[in-house]
Amino acid sequence: MFNRVFISILIVFSTLVLHAQDVRIVARFKTDSVKLGEPVEYLVTTKYPSQWQVLLPDSTFSFSPFDFQKKIYFPTHTINEVSTDSVLYVLSTFEIDSIQTLRIPAFVVLSGDCTAYESNVDTVIFKHLVSQLPDSLSAEQLPLKTNTEYNAVSWLFNYPVFSLVAGAIVLIFILVWLIFGKKIKRYFTIKQLTKNHQEFILNYDTALEKLKSSFTPESAEGSVTIWKKYMENLVTKPYTKSTTRELKEIENNESLVDALQVIDRSIYGRIPPETLESFMNLKEFSTIQFNKKVEELTNG
Q: How far apart are the C-alpha atoms of 35 and 31, rounded to whole Å?
């Protein structure tokens, strides 16, 4: 029984020794020194029986103290049933140790088993950019030069911030218009109507003063024209193109028609009216229509 166990152990040991002899992995840096963050190439070559499957580390492997950047595979070459694989790793280091070493494994995949074989250890020297770092240094001891001259710096326009601000302003404007648009429009419409009415009163009163001091059919007709133009803009009816008879059908207002008829007789008969009451009736009618329009807009 003892001999049988001993023979089994001897067979397993011999197999492992044979496997170790059949797999060779050589790794070396392609440079002797490296700087902080500088890429360094690390070449790994393995030789193994062609019937085996050998895997080399990928980006998930820890290459400490180095950081993995990329790797380059070379095609497998097989001669006399011995395969050769080569992989070039591009690494970088951010450690500041003067001497940095690395070794990596190769994995032999057999049926139901995976065995790792370590490469040799290779060394690279880290080049320090600063030869000596002082513990502390006062500002007076720093080798600084004083320069008080103005140095012009080009102004860069921040387009992303501008786009965000402009977009926010547009969005706020749209929201305000959707919520208060009708009120804003109504406010400015009433404001414009009030301005037009005040201008009409000023022009009409000026025309009546002129008519009062010196009556002429032309000045009387001019006063009526000022009134008709204003009313046409206020109620959007064809006042300027309508006669007194046509205005009677448009407005159906007896007092307005009576005033227009009195004015017509004074214009076409060239007879000065005793008073300007008919002209004042036109002004009063316009004021009533203006107030009615403003009330409709306010309550609309």
A: 11
pTM: 0.46
Q: Is the alpha carbon torsion for 16, 21, 23, 29 positive or negative? A: positive
Residue 40 contacts residue 79 (beta carbons within 8 Å): no
Closest CA to 286 of 185, 183, 203, 169: 203
User: By 3-state DSSP, what share of the chain in percent is helix, strand and coil, each rounded to 5?
Assistant: 50, 25, 30
Q: What is the DSSP string of 182-215?
A: HHHHHHHHHHHHHHHHHHHHHHHHHHHHHHHHS-
**Residue 205 counted as domain residue:** yes
List, for residues 28-66, the tens digit of each pLDDT value.
Answer: 999 999 988 899 999 999 999 988 888 899 888 999 999
Domain range enclosing 79: 17-126
Rounded Cα distance between 90 and 123, Å, is 15
Phi, psi of 243 (to 5 degrees): -85, 175
| CA–CA gap between residue 296 and residue 300 (Å, rounded) | 6
Q: What pLDDT digit, counting tens, does each position of 143-157 carry?
A: 666 677 777 777 788
Closest by Cα among 194, 205, 212, 183 to 276: 212
d(CA 103, CA 91): 13
**Per the domain annotation, does 106 fall within a domain?**
yes
